[in-house]
Amino acid sequence: MNELIKNLCERLASHAASKKPLTIHGGNTKAFYGGAIVGEALDMRAYSGIIEYEPKELVLTVRAGTTLAEIERVMDKENQMLPFEPPHFGEGATAFATIGGTVATGLSGPRRPYTGAVRDFVLGTRIINGRGEDLNFGGRVIKNVAGYDVSRLMTGAMGTLGVLLDCSFKVLPKPAREITLRYEMDEATAIQRMNEWAGRPLPLSATSWCDGVLMVRLSGAESGVKAAQEKLGGENVADKMAHDFWSGLRDHRAGFFSSSEPLWRLSVPSTTPALQLNMPQWMEWGGALRWVRGIAGVNTDITTLRVKVDAVGGHVTLFRNGDKSTGVFHPLQPVLGKIHRNLKTAFDPENILNRGRMDNI
Amino acid sequence: MLVTDTSNFIACLQRIQPPLNILTDVERLKPFETDAFISHRATPLCAVLPETESQVAEILKSCSRERVPVVTRGAGTGISGGAIPHDDGVLVVLTKLNKIANVDALARTATVGPGVRNLAVSDAAKPFRLFYAPDPSSQLICSIGGNVAENSGGVHCLKYGLTTHNVMRARVITSDGDVIEIGSRALDAAGYDLMAVMTGSEGMLGLITEITVKLVAEPEHIETMLAAFPSVTDAANAVGKIIGGGVIPAALEMMDKMVVEACEKVMSAGFPLDAEALLLIELDGVREEVAEQLARVETVLNECHAQEIRVAANAAEREKLWRARKGAFAALATIQPDYYTIDGTIPRRCLPEVLARYAELGREYGMTVANVFHAGDGNLHPCIFYDGTVPGEMERSEELGGKMLEICVEVGGTITGEHGVGIEKLKQMCVQFRPLELSAFHEIKAAFDPSGILNPGKGIPSLKRCSEWGGMHVRAGEIPRSDIPRF
Amino acid sequence: MQTNLADFIKDTPEGIEAESILRKCVHCGFCLATCPTYNLLGDELDSPRGRIYLMKQMLEGAPVTEKTMLHLDRCLTCRACETTCPSGVQYGRLVDIGREIVEQKVERSAIDKLKRAVLKKALPQTGLFKVGLAVGRAVKPLLPDALGKKITAKRDVGVWPAPCHARQMLVLQGCVQPAMAPSINAATARVLDKLGISLIVAPSAGCCGAIPHHLNDVHEAHVFIKRNIDAWWPFVEAGAEAIVVTASGCGTTVAEYGYLLRNDAHYAEKAKRISALYRDVSEIIAKEKNALAKLLAVQNKSKQKLAFHSPCSLQHGLKIKGVVEEILSAAGYELTNVPDGHLCCGSAGTYSLLQSELSQQLLANKVAALESGAPQMIATANIGCLAHIESGLDDSSKLPIRHWIELVDERLT
Fold this sequence. Notes:
The complex is a heterotrimer.
Chain A: H1 2-18, E1 22-25, E2 40-43, E3 50-54, E4 59-63, H2 68-77, E5 80-81, H3 99-105, H4 112-115, H5 118-121, E6 122-128, E7 134-138, H6 150-154, E8 163-170, E9 172-173, E10 177-184, H7 187-198, E11 204-210, E12 213-220, H8 222-232, E13 235-237, H9 239-250, E14 263-267, E15 281-284, E16 289-293, H10 302-311, E17 315-320, H11 334-347
Parallel strand pairs in A: 1-2
Antiparallel strand pairs in A: 3-4, 4-8, 5-9, 6-7, 6-8, 10-12, 10-13, 11-12, 11-15, 14-16, 14-17, 15-16
Chain B: H1 6-14, E1 22-23, H2 26-29, E2 46-48, H3 53-66, E3 70-73, E4 90-93, E5 100-104, E6 109-112, H4 118-125, E7 130-131, H5 144-150, H6 157-160, H7 163-166, E8 167-173, E9 179-183, H8 194-198, E10 207-214, E11 216-217, E12 221-229, H9 232-244, E13 251-256, H10 257-267, E14 277-285, H11 287-303, E15 308-311, H12 315-326, H13 328-332, E16 339-341, H14 351-365, E17 369-373, E18 382-385, H15 393-410, H16 426-432, H17 435-448, H18 463-469
Parallel strand pairs in B: 2-4, 3-4
Antiparallel strand pairs in B: 1-2, 5-6, 6-10, 7-11, 8-9, 8-10, 12-14, 12-15, 13-14, 13-17, 16-18, 17-18
Helix pairs in contact in B: 9-11, 9-14, 14-15, 15-16, 16-18
Chain C: H1 7-10, H2 13-24, H3 30-33, H4 36-41, H5 48-59, H6 66-73, H7 80-84, H8 91-105, H9 110-122, H10 126-131, H11 133-139, H12 146-150, E1 167-171, H13 176-180, H14 183-194, E2 197-201, H15 210-214, H16 218-237, E3 243-245, H17 248-255, H18 257-260, H19 268-277, E4 278-280, H20 281-287, H21 289-297, E5 304-309, H22 312-317, H23 323-330, E6 333-335, H24 351-354, H25 356-371, E7 377-380, H26 383-392, E8 401-403, H27 404-412
Parallel strand pairs in C: 1-2, 1-3, 3-4, 5-6, 5-7, 7-8
């Protein structure tokens, strides 16, 4: 692996010298996400494997090219999990999502509002910056405030600040029991309920509302989950069905997501009232994440959408499909934009890493 | 200092509207010369106590124009010297920005000024049965702004996370005096995670004027237990076994005999005095789940030779135990007023080994070492006692502390888990990071603060100093990118 | 904190004590949290830690001006910081030393001097106070409005039982209290009488010495203290069990007689004895609680909601916590929750008259906190707090405020 790293460093340094862009990829399952891809491909799949996994420490260190499937297989044996429930988009016989892509995109699954996001569990990263320098930040311990928190800065930076090599995570034991409850209610009531329940000591682990149906997942010890279920009522969903439901939402395999229409990701304060967009919508994360789909044949007015979401203190991403020329990511306020560009230059002065992939900086 | 005319600069500050509280006389500046890291001191050019965000922005505009260093101070409870003033700089004290703007019970957030006390946030959230989770031992007084600057932890962060996990959004004044908002009331924000970079940045990237924090539901049920052990090793083993066994306690603290005696003497906490080590364990959650975990933890404790296990019978007993734990450091001062505390974090499995090596080092130096720390996080806080009236003793205690931190790095840990680098651990930064990484940190700082006026000389050592200290393997001419500004 | 005291103070008893107190302080800042003035002003200089630093500089010989004096003047000496301090720093003693020195080193303004002189003379003279408003009116232009409002309606004193019991205790009459609320000591005498104790007064005793002490006049304070000791001594020799004080503010001073006169060749021993005999009335009653319970058992009155304000002198100075509350509960009162119960009401001896702006803010906060639990009445344990809080109560819906012993007395009659 040392040889591989050395080669990667040299390759990046030579690209920096020639100012030629590189596009980093793993399983390519999230190639649809972000600005247009330019430049030569840098395939990270060969850099894979678990470096250290100490179940008793609740810490995992892996190479970026390791697939989520492999990590989950190993952790299953120890009855532990990546607490942020990462999505595995578009997996097939050949394409498997990697942990590097997970960290780079910073995308988390349905458990996110209740347990935390990728960035909450990243403890350390080893990266190669745009000059071809091999750097280590953070560590393998739960608490660490030495130096700026570069590992969290890398998370969700779309590979624009460095090529991820190794990542360390805090992991958690799997809950002993998960049950899912189903309710029928309108959007406003669902938003109210999800927020109220989140403010009570309940073992919530996921919530979803779509087409008048609220789904609530509870996780924890058998006794605790049962006790919460008694308090919350609702209709119990069979385990298999519940599992398919949540993984369908997490991995966007559910019908809602399979359309070729543009899919917008609206990240908003959880208590934001119904947005009245007249577009098909799926809400999760206790109301804080609202997936909105374009309607065939109708041009979505992206400016109006952004203004509306801006007004409630959120941001819009064109997640999949649609016209990327109007921008994928939410525009940044000018001073913030300047800081972003300064950071990009600090890590990648020649702009060779995933050039344009984060199109709002 | 860079400013050519001090009185002109002060006059500049005096023109700020509404009029600013400015201190320029030594008599009143001295009390600000240090924080809770009292071995170091500096008297600033002046101190200002703004009461509005616009005043803060104006102060920074003046400072960046004149290139005057700016050090920010909250309650002044930091123990790594992050808020110690700069001799030629302005000390911006944010304790007057102490209003709670709002508590949104439904959204479970509180928006507060940086000078609001940590515990005041939980007090304001209490009517809604919510609380602000990070609880550093100084939570009674430490400010939320300071918590963000240091990424403070506390006794409950094993389960509830550090400040970085509990802060959503901040209004920040940049070194140029611009107002920006980072993070979001939503669960993520567009662009890079600047909230993460700002958290723990020790006042080197911007001045925070408003913070939105996450509030969490008070647990339905809490059990706090105390377990006494005949040896430190037994207690350390129990820590690994509890967590390895799948129980994540809300808190898991350890203290050795010396700390127990000090707490008992000052606060009469009811700690057993015949034990070599105590664990303080808190479990919380749904009632039934806590009962299940309590039984599991008791089994582990017995397996690890606990000589006594006590479960707090009520809230008053629980509070008494925690009060004693949180007052432990100050209580230690009654044994000997001068001590030096460090903050390394190690993988939990190394606890018995590292504690034994610390004791050995203490003997080598002929200095007493007491331990009270966040065992569940592997976050160690050894207290090294010395006699400040003996010349050279303080320096020796710092040297011993430095060696202890190097052990942390050696076993795969870090030199600071929650106290920050400040000026205290600059030397050890050179051990933990290589020149390239330190350069990357300097470049991040420059991205936010191009003129380098914010808390210069703290947090990240210059490569030059590292090579002087010899802690870093820099050979002549190998200092990377010598063109970037170093502070 | 390490200190290096200047020669002028280094080897004096005050210097030695100040140094030992300063050495204990680790500058952790916990004391800021419960300091009333820091809570209002958000300025380190108006916090215990800031004041300790100001005093440290002064003791180390740094030039000192009216700035240090101002921040020391703003301290209420409520000693909430001592309750919070995890290192056991005796701030109250340090600030006494600091104030004495600042008084020597810094010249007060003429108006400030006059104000203080008037207060020092007027308040401790029970006679003057009784004749009342003549002096009040004369000094009014110099004093804040608060003083006028403080003169409360005199309650019916009732009977003081004749001393007939073998058990006898002395009571401190004090200065302000007998003029403003003579009913308090009379009520105490009646309650103790029912418990088999006769309460007696030494006619020539008077002000405990706290007022000159508050005004940094150590000499005058010692004169008062010695006068009291001389007045009490024959009774002490005759077997008085205790010296009972019904105003906790005065109590903290009597408790410190031994300390205050520790260097006085003639009085040190006697003062120590007096301090040892001193008891707050709540301590006496708490000891007799079984007897009291029997007396109360015959009563059958409906529960009344009551807000209790624990004076700083009681909870922080004397460290008596929860004792009065327990007695009141036993007497059939339902105590309401009072937020920030550790904070001072702003009375603090002469503070309300000298720092009226801060005092009024604290008063407003205290009244709001006391009223928040919708009580039917308020009780406290110190005449200063009583008068001060009463002046802050809204006239339209004025809640009655009493010394708690009067409420116990009422339940027994």
